[in-house]
Amino acid sequence: MKxxxxxxxxxxxxxxxxxxxIGTIVRVxxxxxxxxxxxxxxxxxxxxxxxxxxxKQERSDPSKIEGQQALFVVNxxxxxxxxxxxxxxxxxxxxxxxxxxxxxxPEKPVPNGSRAG
Length: 117
Known about the structure:
Layout: H1 12-16, E1 20-30, E2 38-43, E3 48-53, E4 69-73, E5 79-81, E6 84-86, E7 89-90, E8 92-93, E9 102-103
Antiparallel strand pairs: 1-2, 1-4, 2-3, 4-7, 5-6, 8-9
């Protein structure tokens, strides 16, 4: 892997606009008609959300991540994909660099909804 150049500098105020939280992946479901997407039902402590993620081609069995905590961006505008609405974005490590992605996870369990940053 070739290490990518660092992106342009941003102000701390710009970083503070991103709301990154821990959620537990309660369930992984098929998205009808998609060869890429799965629906993650994610528990953020005070509510659950549907988050669509392109995991089908990255993992032989996406359901193996059920029960795991991971980082999610929760303040992105909802996005419609394959006729469904995604209410956030899963943080992963590696996709942008062309390697098999892994989840960004806490080193030990923390309360759902805990903020990163």
